[in-house]
């Protein structure tokens, strides 16, 4: 059975759970908002919010004493960017060590905030999805979605076929059994060899840890696909591609969310991107990117 359809972000909001409305508006992820509710940080019409509370037109909502104009989220269309993250950048809003963060490279939003769909560690580059729709991000990251993540991996030295079989069958890591759903040799000369690997989990450093469990050294790691979304050809590091409305609606439909229509808003695309960066949502979800 497919997931239930959610109301479009372009329709009037009413009788919806607070966590759902705020997540869709990019105030935070649903998990974060539910935690804020448990911590007593949200007030609805002067009363502390409980899990499952819903919003009605005219309701007065506060977060940490600050008024949240939640009604405007009804006029916010969903946006999703494909960002080409380079190594050295951190997927966080603020880094205590002063390292560059990905959010400074993105266009500013008038309402809500960008939410990263999963993470890439500082030494991993490639495709990173960001959206202003927290419900969309939640569905794409949820383990039940089992969306494929494909990586280009450069390893040092030769690997025995027995190792590949172990990695595809499953190995025990410190946080449970994990495996590669697919491993394909992509070429390479000398000591360096390239492979494409596929996983369906978003555990921290999972790809590196799987290789390291077999004493294999990863010298470069690049994500090239997330679900059916592949890295656009020619997209340079620090640059992004914004999905078209047709591409966005295909994605929304694939995760059980209602399609949307465009609304008036300021230009939201990267004017420096090349026009030949063409469709990124493919029927088979295969990347044409080569390294």
General description of the model:
- The protein is α+β, with helices and mostly antiparallel strands.
- It is about 15% helix and about 25% strand.
- It contains six helices and 17 strands.
- The strands form four sheets. Strands 7, 8, 9, 10, 13, 14, 15, 16 and 17 form a nine-stranded mixed beta sheet that branches. Strands 3-2-5-6 form a four-stranded antiparallel beta sheet, with no helix packed on it. Strands 1-4 form a two-stranded antiparallel ribbon.
- The longest helix is centred in the C-terminal third of the chain and has 10 residues, at about 245-255.
- The chain is elongated.
- About 30% of the residues are buried.
Strand fraction equals: 15-25%
Tell me, briefly, the overall form: elongated
Taking the sheet with the most strands, its summary is: 9 strands, mixed
Radius of gyration: 21 Å
Number of helices: 6
- Number of E-state strands: 17
Q: Termini separation (Å)?
A: 39 Å
Mean pLDDT: 84
Given helix and strand content, the structural type is alpha+beta
- Strand and helix order: EHHEEEEEEEEHEHEEEEHEEEH
Helix content: 10-25%
Runs with pLDDT <50, length 5+? 1-13, 264-291
Question: Helices and strands in order, then pairings?
Answer:
Layout: E1 16-17, H1 18-24, H2 30-38, E2 42-44, E3 47-48, E4 54-55, E5 61-63, E6 66-67, E7 80-85, E8 115-117, E9 125-131, H3 134-141, E10 149-156, H4 161-169, E11 171-173, E12 176-178, E13 182-187, E14 192-199, H5 206-212, E15 218-226, E16 229-230, E17 240-242, H6 245-254
Parallel strand pairs: 9-15
Antiparallel strand pairs: 1-4, 2-3, 2-5, 5-6, 7-9, 7-17, 8-9, 10-14, 10-15, 11-12, 13-14, 15-16
Helix pairs in contact: 1-2
């Amino acid at each position: 059975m497919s997931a239930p359809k959610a109301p479009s972000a372009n329709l009037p909001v009413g009788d919806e759970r607070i966590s759902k409305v705020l997540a869709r508006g990019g105030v935070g992820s649903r998990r974060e908002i539910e935690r804020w509710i448990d911590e007593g940080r949200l007030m609805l019409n002067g009363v502390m919010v409980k899990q499952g509370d819903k919003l009605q037109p005219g309701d007065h909502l506060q977060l940490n004493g600050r008024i949240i104009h939640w009604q405007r989220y009804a006029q916010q269309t969903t946006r999703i960017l494909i960002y080409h993250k380079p190594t050295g950048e951190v997927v966080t809003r603020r880094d205590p060590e002063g390292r560059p963060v990905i959010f400074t490279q993105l266009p500013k939003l008038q309402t809500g905030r960008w939410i990263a769909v999963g993470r890439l560690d500082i030494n991993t580059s490639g495709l990173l999805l960001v959206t202003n729709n927290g419900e969309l991000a939640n569905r794409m990251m949820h383990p039940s979605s089992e969306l494929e993540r494909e990586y280009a991996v450069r390893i040092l030295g030769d690997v025995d076929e027995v190792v590949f079989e172990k990695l595809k069958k499953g190995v025990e890591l410190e946080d449970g059994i994990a495996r590669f759903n697919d491993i394909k040799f992509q070429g390479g000369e000398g000591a360096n060899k390239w492979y494409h690997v596929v996983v369906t989990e978003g555990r921290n450093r999972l790809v590196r840890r799987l290789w390291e469990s077999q004493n294999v050294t990863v010298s470069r790691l690049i994500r090239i696909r997330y679900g059916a979304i592949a890295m656009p050809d020619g997209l340079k590091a620090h640059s992004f591609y914004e999905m078209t409305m047709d591409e966005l609606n295909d994605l929304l439909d694939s995760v059980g969310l209602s399609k949307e229509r465009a609304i008036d808003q300021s230009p939201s695309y990267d004017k420096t991107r090349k026009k030949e960066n063409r469709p990124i949502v493919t029927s088979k979800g295969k990347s044409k990117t080569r390294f």
